[in-house]
Specification:
The chain has 400 residues and is of the alpha/beta class. The protein is 30% helix and 25% strand. It starts with a helix and ends with a helix.
Amino acid sequence: MLAAFAEGTSRFTNFSTGADCASTLACMGALGATIVKTNDNAVEITGVAGRVIPSNIPLDCGNSGSTMRMISGLLAPQPGRFTLVGDASLSRRPMDRVRKPLESMGARLTLTDGHAPLTIHGATLRPIDYTTPIPSAQVKACILLAGLQTEGTTIVRESVRTRDHSELALRAFGATLTRSLDAVSISGPQSLRAIDSSIPGDISSAAFFLCAAALFPGSALVLDSVGLNPTRATLLDVLTALGAHISVLNLEEKNAELVGAIQVSSPPQGLGSTVVSGALAAQLIDELPVLAAIAPYTSGGIRIRDAKELRIKESDRIALVAKNLRAMGAEVEEFEDGLDIPGGQTLHGATIDSGGDHRIAMAFSVAALRAVGETLIQGSESAAISFPEFFDLLDLVAER
């Protein structure tokens, strides 16, 4: 998105093959960026130098909440009228959380009962000092992208520090931001310049393999070139607390992001127990489904709290995790903001309802590795939203 907005041609290697990233590319192409996929599997993006071309057709964000929320901030200061749409799942996700700060800046957004389709009437904006009611990296990025183009200083405050990829990426593209303990500010207007980058592996995708390896005593796995941003790598601390042996190798910085190899092995006695709550739950929001899926195999179980946000993701992930664990014979207690999953359980194969949610499909594929009997994942094709190669790679590393 930033490359498509910048001046010049950016080049990315190791670009994700997921449908969400394809949705972003398609939206930015419709807004005037030139996108070329090269023979060496790189993506070259020539940007619009800060001025998009209004699209006369709706911009389809597919299943990607990140695309819809962040592009709203990018487009709100641009002249013209823009309509954003998504699939059935995205159209159920709340978009008031970006409407409110953008309207405070002077934009006008139209929603349908708080959901997409979302229409943006671009306008000259004014800076704001905004505290996010619910910690959200997507909302933070939305406001920063609007602030990038707004005269004055825009400040975003958050009670829990959320993922900072957007801040680091903005700096990589030449923007200046200021970070304090609980806030980030950007002064505008600023322009962006193109970069060349190798995209690190996504630790939220790596999480399924890390958890799978941690399940089996005697297992060992090394994952190379994984992004280890401190606001994203909390999973490694949780797996360590559960007893897994984690080593980080070859750590280096690339375009302000930390990248390294992760070596994981399971302890001979198996995994222990842990509690995920408070700020930890916010930092682990994408990894919670797979942690919950392996919880029955730990000795002491896993308790998850303060994760109500899971109910308004691509699916109600709390309800689906509970439903599918019970289908596999597990004992689990469901709460409005989390789950209690005792350890020391033996699961059996079952038919899993993914709800069309990529993280649920992949999480229960990991749970199925230690279940007795065959498991059928309904809606397994949803993994392609973020990780089309998932099942091939899982088959490659799983010991028979």
